Each structure stands twice: as structure tokens, then as C-alpha cells.
Amino acid sequence: MGDWEVAEELVQEAAVSALEHWPRDGVPRNPGAWLMTAARRRAIDTLRRDARFRDRLSVLAEEANGMERPIATGGPLEADDRLRLIFTCCHPALSREAQVALTLRTVLGIETPAVARAFLVPEATIAQRLVRAKRKIRDAGIPYRVPEGSELPERLEQVLAVLYLVFNEGYLASGGEVVERRALAADAEWLTSLVVRLMPDEGEPLGLLGLMRLHLARAEARFGPDGSLILLPQQDRSRWDREAIAAAEELVERAGRMGRRGPYQLQAAIVAAHATSPSYAATDWARIVALYDELLEVQPMAVVALNRAVALAEYQGPGAALAAIEPLTGRLDGYHLFHATRGELLRRLGRAEEARAADQRALSLTENPGERRILEERLAASRGDPRPRS
Questions:
Q1: Which CA distances in Å does 67 have to 5, 80, 84, 211?
Q2: Are residues 380 and 306 in the same domain?
Q3: Is there a domain that residue 108 lies in?
Q4: Cys-Cys with 123: which of 13, 116, 175, 297 at CB 3.0–4.6 Å?
Q5: How far is CA 376 from CA 24, 199, 306, 340, in A?
């Protein structure tokens, strides 16, 4: 249709219709197809009242027919509307920031505040990006489809970036009352598997899929019986899914045979080094630091440098790690994990007052209940309290 706002309204109306009909008639065998059909019928009714309805109806009919075609010409592959919409959002006519923000908010329903936290920018900035992106799609007539083969590479980077951010939001929620959103993480993993099937000769989708599956294979050990977050050094590794880890590692190795390693492959290699280690103490920290050095060459980001410092603390000690992260203060002052990491390093160096201040700052920046509990316990312990204050 070419009008993002109208399309969103039609989908919302279809959802309302489902709430009215399904309790009475039963949930259809293919709920997604039912909703799409309902939205399309409402679109046709809307366009019939439009003076230009003939032209726009033909466009709608063409798009509807396109939905039935496989998204890869090399073999059968079930087309998923969300994947098609992700590629629409990642059209090169949009800025990279708008591509990611629009996909997170529109395709996967992540709230605007959570999108803002993912970007480390104010919520108003994200809201403005969303408005501009929707207007651009409408005005430029950007089509709703998976691109042709020649168009795929220029969109792949941002599609993968979106799926990675979605996975991270599911694996450890940035806000709300839950620590994780496992279904959201699994959704991102499934969509990434579709990208791998769409582009089987690209290494980075394979690397990202391997990275996600390595994380999911260890997910059961991340939480205690009371739902509290368990950090890597304290996790019960017997609860890790070793078979899934081995399968994910094969994906990473397969990606590596395709040529130069990109950032997702390198991150997956780092996680694989953790996942295949028999214990935290036996971790090959020298190899992990070397992998982070390689990652920094292809992705020179402050967050990568921060993660490298965590490994460096185990390899060369907390003093070396603290010296490595101090230059990041200006860029990561609004990032809670920077202050939480700095607090832990200061505590290990015996600088208790500075560590408490860093933990307080980290606590003020996170809404995740699991992370807040860990920080509150650290602060309580620093005061000599038997348990954290509520």
C-alpha cells in the first residue's frame, strides 16, 4: 500500500477482529494467514473509497501474490512475513539508525524505551527516527518484499544487526519486570536461521546463528530457583546442553571456512571458548583476549573494548583491566555494565568506596530485576548488611 501508518492501523483492526471472532469460532489452524487475510480485506475496503483505488489495488494484489512465493529461488522455503518486513525496514534509502529502530519497534514489537536503551540515546530521539523512517517508506514507495539476490548483500549487515539486538533484548531484558524474554530470543534465532537458508554462502549469518545457539544452549543455568541471575563463574555447567553446544560450534567452524571472519563469527568463537571450557578456572583467557583483539580490529567499539577488559582481568589482573576501561568513561557513562564492571575491578583492587559509587551508578542505570538484585547484593555486602535493602 505504501502507507506505513495505514498498514499499522489495518493490522490493529485485524487483531481486534480476531479477539471478537476466535473466542466464538475457535482459533484458526493458521492464525497468521487469518490475520493477513483480514487485514488485506480491510485494506481493499479502504482503497475502494480512495480516488486512486484502481492503481493501488493492483499494487496490493501484486504484493499479495508475492507473499505466496518462496523467498529463495534455490528451493522451497516458507516465506515469513516478519522476515520480509525486516528487509523492508532495512532498505538502503533509510539511515542505518532508522533501519534498526524501525525493525525493533514495528516488526518485533519492542517498546520505544527499550529501543532507546539499546541505542544508548534518549527515547525522544528514537521516536523521531521512527516517524521519519515511516514517512520515508511512504514517500519513496519502498516495496514490501525480500530483495532480489543482487540486492541482498547491501542489506545483510543491518538485518543481522537487528536480529542480534532482538536476541540480546530477549536473552537479558533491558527493562520491565522480567529478567529475560526467552520467546523473543528464540524468535530472533529462528529468523536468523531463515536468513542462513536464504543466503547459505555467507559466513556472518552462520556466525550469528551459531552465537545465538551457543547462548541458548547455556540458558538453563543462568537463573536460580528463585529466578535470580547467575553469572558465568557461578553457573552449574552440568546444566549446559553439550549436544547443542557442539552443533553450534560446527556452525561457527563452517562459517570460518568461508573466508575472513566477521564480527559475529568472532563473537561466536569467544562464546564457544567459554562454552567448551570444563570450568571457569580452566578458561583459555589468553585465547579469548586475542579473539577480542581481532574483534576490535573489525569492530572498534567501546562496548567491545569493555568486554575485552573483563577477559583481561582474568588474564593479566584487575589493574590492567581497569587501566583499559578508564579511557571509555566518556563514551560509556550511560551504560550500566561499564559501571558494574568498573565497580567489580575496584573491589578486587581493595578500593571499596570507589567500588560502591560505581555500583550505585550502575544500579541507577538498569531496570532489569536480575541485574538490580546482583548490584543490590554487592552494595549490601559492602555495608556489611546480611541481605540487600529493599
A1: 20, 9, 9, 30
A2: yes
A3: yes
A4: 116
A5: 48, 45, 22, 11
CA 259 to chain centre: 25
For residue 177, the model assigns a pLDDT of: 67
Q: What is the pLDDT of residue 226?
A: 79
CA atoms within a 13 Å half-sphere pointing along the CA-CB vector of 247: 10
* Residue 229: strand pairing partners: 223
Rounded distance between C-alpha atoms, residue 111 and residue 114, angstroms: 5
User: Do 308 and 216 lie in a common domain?
Assistant: no
Q: What is the pLDDT of residue 156?
A: 87
pLDDT of residue 45: 60
Q: Please, which residues have CB within 8 angstroms of residue 242's CB and are 6 or more apart in sequence?
A: 217
**Grid cell 518486513 in the structure block, residue:** 85
The reported pLDDT for the residue numbered 255 is 94
**Structural domain of 17:** 1-68
For 314, residues 6+ apart whose C-beta sits below 8 A from its C-beta are: 283, 285
Are 89 and 102 in contact by the 8 Å Cβ rule? The answer is: yes
> What is the C-alpha to C-alpha distance for residues 353 and 343, in angstroms, rounded to an integer?
10
Instruction: Give bridge partners of residue 223 from the DSSP assignment.
Output: 229
CA distance 367 to 178: 10
Residue with cell 515511516: 134
Which of 39, 68, 97 is where one domain is finished?
68
- Domain contains 178: no
- What CA–CA distance (Å, rounded) separates 156 from 192? 11
Residues 226 and 146 reside in one and the same domain: no
Residue 279: what residue type?
A: S
What is the pLDDT at residue 278?
94
Residues of the chain with pLDDT under 70: 1-25, 27-82, 108, 118-120, 144-147, 174-178, 385-390
